[in-house]
Amino acid sequence: MPKDRQAAATHAGSRPGPEETVFRGAAWLPHGYRLHPHSHAQGQLVYAAAGTLATATERGTWVAPANRVTWTPPRFAHSHRFYGETDVRLLSVPVDLCGELVDHPSVFAVSPLLREALLALTDGSERRAGARRRLLTVVVDELADSAEQSLHLPEPGDDRLRSATDLLHEDPARPTTLAGLGRAVGASERTLSRLFHSELGMSFHRWRTTLRIHHALGHLTDGLSVTDTAMACGWSNPSSFIDAFTEVVGQTPGRYQADLRRPAPAPSPSPSPARQQSVGR
């Protein structure tokens, strides 16, 4: 893996343009690595076979640990951030298949069948003409029948609500009530409560919990203990944090952290073309 993956992934080390495909196939990326905003002419599935990724768009941020896959429709500007050493798998979905999936960014659960199909499509070359297209169709069918499981943090458009969420972004552990937050931004508790539901589709409590879990993923990846992570993110006790984390992420924080510690497989001395980065329109 080159030291400067960003330079290796772009033309002459420049940041990716709005229509540039940054990666195809698979690659190991270091903790904290970011891909700047870009879009694709085709749809894109991104799967972290190990590690965790966050996908951000103008509609908010989606987080996907290793048991979920992110979906971004064509022409939808997005960026990525990776937590832990991440075995990232990127798969383009032709426009003619995109209509089978939802028309907005989302996250889906990864079944054993879906996992193996994603790995096969991103690791190795096609051995029989048309095999990749047939397997991709299976992937799309699996996703079309799956319920969305988005660890999604939506972002507001209303100025009052944005001021309130900005305060929480600055300090996720901020021990404030909705009324206290309203006083800080010059809005009533009732107004903010209405805006959380109408603009973000969730309660203040749910939005803040999701924000805190986004930050918890980073702390756990950095090696902070479960107890210290709970305190740093605003939970009064570890058991409440464990319950909330398990509900949203689908595994306990201890299991998530243990999975991150699993040693990465040694890189092949002669990686196949599908395992290498490439850049294109």
Automatic annotation (TrEMBL):
SUPFAM superfamilies hit by this protein: Homeodomain-like, RmlC-like cupins
Q: Does the keyword Transcription apply?
A: yes
Q: Could you tell me which InterPro entries the record lists for this protein? A: Homeodomain-like_sf (IPR009057), HTH_AraC (IPR018060), RmlC-like_jellyroll (IPR014710), RmlC_Cupin_sf (IPR011051)
Where the record annotates domain HTH araC/xylS-type, the positions are 162-259
* Keyword field: Transcription, Transcription regulation
Lineage top rank: taxon: Bacteria
**Region Disordered: start-end pairs:** 1-21, 253-281
* Name of the featured protein: AraC family transcriptional regulator
